[in-house]
Amino acid sequence: TLNQEKEKREEKLGDLTRKKETLQRETERKKEWEELDRQAASLEAEIPAYDRLIQAENEAKKAEADLLRQQETEKKQVQAAIGARKDAEVLRREQQELEHAGEQLEVLRRELDRQKGRKDSLEELKRDLDSWMAGERERQTVEAERAGREEERNALKAKEEDLAADLERRERLLEELKGADLRKAELERQLAEEKRRQQDLTELYRDTEEYRKLWEAYDRARKIYVNAAAEAERLGVEYQAASRAFLDGQAGILAQSLEPGRPCPVCGSTDHPMPAVRPGETPSEAEMDQARENWEAARKKAEEASQEAGNRMGAAAAKKQEVSGRLEKLTGEAGFGEADGRIRSLLERSDKRRKELEAGIEAARRDLERRALEEKRRREQEQLQKQLRIQGEELAGQLTKLMSAMGKLEGESSQMWKKIGGESLALGLDGPGQSAGVSRSAEELSSEETSRPAALSQKKTAARLMEAAGQELQKTGSSIKRLEEKTEEEEARVKRRGELTGLIADREEAARRAEEELADCRKALAASETRKQELERQLLAAGQGLRFENKEQAAQALEELRSRSAAGKAALEQARAEADRCEKELAGLDGRIGQLEKQLEEAEPVDLSAAEADKQAMEEERTVLDERQKRLYSRIQANGSALENIRSRSGRLEELEKRWSMVRALANTAGGTVSGREKIMLETYIQMTYFDRIIHRANTRFMVMSGGQYELKRRERAANNQSQSGLELDVIDHYNGTERSVKTLSGGESFQASLSLALGLSDEIQSLAGGIRLDTMFVDEGFGTLDESALEQAVQALAGLTEGNRLVGIISHVAELKERIERQIVVTKDRAGGSRAEIRC
Which positions are tagged coiled coil (predicted)? Predict the structure, then answer.
């Protein structure tokens, strides 16, 4: 709005004023950063002087360091000369003190060897005592193991006795359960018979119910027939009466037209002595025809009802004949009265018996399971008994080995004990304060060598000897240590006395060299002092006129001057740019304010409420558009993901489509569903080859049976391309040269064709199977449809098959065949519902 633009102009005008003031201040400070530039140039010219000052300082420091090092060297040379003189004097006094060294060395060495020998003997005694004690411990362990094995063997014997008693009890139990399998089998057989009887009773019950329903249906059909017959008889009487009345009326009508002298149209006579008289009520021909139609319809209905009743009665009689035998067999009575009750009673008793048998079978099964469990446990116990026997044998062998080991250990212990006694007596064990105890130990050893007292006494004796030997060994070790220290000390004194002569000469020579080097060092020290003073004068001259202590401070000050100058220039440029920008923005605001004032003068009054409504509508539209934008964005994201998936899978889809097209074409070809072509499956195509061969073999007989009239042929062209084809069969009629479907043959001709195909199939199987022959075949029925000539031809064809080793059987009721067949099996039904067979040759 105009007010907003004016407010912006006022703000921008204030901002411009501030920017110009800033620009003025920065312009006034221009002389400051020009002065900084001059100072920086002057300081930059002094930088090489600082480099020369640093070089002079480094040389002065080096000279001072050389001087200090030479002074230190002088001190060391002085100390070295003094120390060498003192060392030589000390060594001369030590040489005088060692004048008598080495006089007692041989005595010390002999005593040291004697003490070491005694120590070795004492250590051997301790080792023997340790070995004897270890043997005793091992013997005790073996004795404990032997006792444990003995206890195990006794426990094993007790366990074997318990196991034997348990096995004997289990054998008795198995003997009691011995017949469980036979009892179960017998019960299962009885249960199967009872179930069959139950099934037979159930079927018998259903059949009796069916017979009852059939009889009820027959009774209803009989009643319908009686009513229909009565109605037909009544309508027949009415029709006969109407017919007579109609005929009588026709004679009367004809007599009315007779004239004397003219011939009668019926008899031709010209005399009419007694013309017929027309009755008073004569039915019309239409009424007579209606009466006849009613009578014929009623008669037809009565005949149908009679046939239905007869069929019902036949079905009921057949069912009764079928059921009566089984009813008598299963219930003991052939009558149908109360048959349902008897059957239900028998079914209840059978169900009770079945449950008893199932309970018995379950008990037998449990006995069998128990027997199997007991047999399994018996096998386990027998296996355990075998294992216990083996364990007993192993324990006996282990006890034998343990007894042998104990004997061996006792022998070794006795030998070691004797050796320990000898060693202790040889050593004497004469230590200070131990002679009485040692004497007792020796006496005990002497006594134990001959009498072998109890093991406890031996252990105590061995412990006392071990303690005494340990104490003596400790004393001997201390003596050896003292002797070794004295020997080593004496040997060191002798060696030191020999070394001192050379050391004294070396110390005196070192003192002389140190004094010479001290004189040279003092000369060099004077020259270095002079050099140092000269460099200090040069350093003082180089530092005059410089404003800073070192180059780093000068460089830091130079960088600070340059930074301050650059900051001042940058601030001036920024203030100038911001002032220009504010002037441009202010000019733009003035232009917009002018345009708005002009538009305001030209504009019409504005309806604020309408503008507010438009604003509200536009905000709502914007909200709707925002929601739509969000939905579109979501859809774009989802569609983008879908597009990526489609692109990633399109290649795979194309490959699958190509493969599918190939597989589909192959499947359509194999399935016989190729569009526009005959529907022949691969299986049918293979069968066509064999079918042609079978037809070829069949025609050799079909031509004979049909007297050369017919020949079979597979149809090569399908009737249409909609249904499966390839195995349709046609027949060629050689009498008239036509080809038609095999379905047009008569019944006898169809039988001949079927028989020929069966024989052709038999021949083809024999030719392909290799080694398989169909030497026997039976032909069931079909001969009744043949006329005399066709029958003769069929018999001749079958007779030709029997000329080899093939047997052909014919099942038929045709009397002519009965006379032609020599060997027969005649089956005759009897009245009891069975049949009997008779072989005739």
Answer: 347-390, 466-628
Which residue bears the tokens 């009544």? 234
**Is 586 strand, coil or helix?**
helix
Q: What is the tens place of the pLDDT at every residue in 139-164? A: 778 778 778 777 877 887 787 777 77
**250 falls within a domain:** yes
In angstroms, the first-to-last Cα distance of the chain is 135
221-271 pLDDT, tens digit per residue, is 888 888 888 888 888 888 878 877 776 676 666 677 777 777 776 666 777
- For residue 763, give both structure tokens: 């021949």
Q: Are residues 769 and 815 both part of a single domain?
A: yes
pLDDT value, residue 731: 92
Phi then psi for residue 603, to 5 deg, are -75, 150
Asked whether the beta carbons of 624 and 47 are under 8 A apart, the reply is no
Pull the structure tokens for residue 753: 């064709």
92 within 8 A of 550, measured Cβ to Cβ: no
The answer to whether the CB of 759 falls within 8 A of the CB of 698 is yes
- Residue 732 host element (H or E): strand 729-733
Containing 779, the helix (H) or strand (E) segment is strand 776-780
How does residue 437 score in pLDDT terms, banded at 50, 70 and 90?
A: very low
- Do residue 703 and residue 650 come from a single domain? no
Six-digit token pair at 662? Answer: 């190939």
Question: Could you identify the residue written with the tokens 């039915």?
Answer: 283
Distances (CA, A) of 84 to 87, 90, 439, 502, 518: 5, 10, 65, 14, 13
Number of Cβ within 10 Å of residue 184's Cβ equals: 19
Domain assignment of residue 427, yes or no: no
Instruction: Quote the CA–CA distance of 154 and 310 in Å, as a whole number.
Output: 98
| Contact assessment for residue 427 and residue 178, using Cβ atoms and an 8 Å cutoff | no
Q: Count Cβ atoms below 10 Å from residue 105 Cβ, excluding itself.
A: 15
pLDDT on residue 446: 37
Token representation of residue 355: 């449950």
Q: Is 71 exposed, middle or buried (0-12, 13-18, 19+ CB in 10 A)?
A: middle
Check residue 167 and report its DSSP letter: H
Q: What is the dihedral of CA 481, 487, 488, 491, to 10 degrees?
A: 180
Nearest residue to 388 (alpha-carbon basis) of 105, 65, 152: 152
Helix (H, G, I), strand (E, B) or coil at 223: helix
Residues 820 and 808: their CA atoms lie apart, in Å, by 13
CA 440, CA 691: separation in Å to the nearest integer? 126
Q: Are residues 760 and 744 in the same domain?
A: yes
Q: Cα(50)–Cα(53) distance, rounded to whole angstroms?
A: 5
Question: Does 700 lie in the same domain as 780?
Answer: yes
CB 163 within 8 A of CB 370: no
Residue at token pair 């004949």: 321
Which helix (H) or strand (E) segment holds residue 809: the answer is strand 807-811
Q: Identify residue 220 by its one-letter amino acid code.
A: R
What pLDDT score does 800 carry?
66
Shared-domain flag, residues 745 and 798 = yes
What domain range is 644 assigned to? 625-665
Residue 402 CB: number of other CB atoms within 10 A? 19
Question: Which H helix or E strand runs over 829?
Answer: strand 824-829
Same domain membership, residue 326 and residue 184: yes
CA distances to 65, 118, 536 from 51, in Å: 21, 87, 17
- What's the structural domain count of the chain? 4
**Beta strands 835-840 and 824-829, pairing class:** antiparallel
How far apart (Å, rounded) are the C-alpha atoms in residues 592 and 605?
A: 20
Enter the tokens of residue 208.
């009796």
pLDDT in tens, 178-231: 776 777 777 778 878 878 877 877 777 787 778 788 888 888 888 888 888 888
Is 189 in a helix, a strand, or coil? Answer: helix
* Calpha distance 2→574 (Å, rounded): 31
Which has the higher per-residue pLDDT, 133 or 769?
133
Look at the pTM and tell me if it is higher than 0.90: no
Please answer whether residues 288 and 246 qualify as being in contact, where contact means their C-beta atoms are separated by less than 8 angstroms. yes
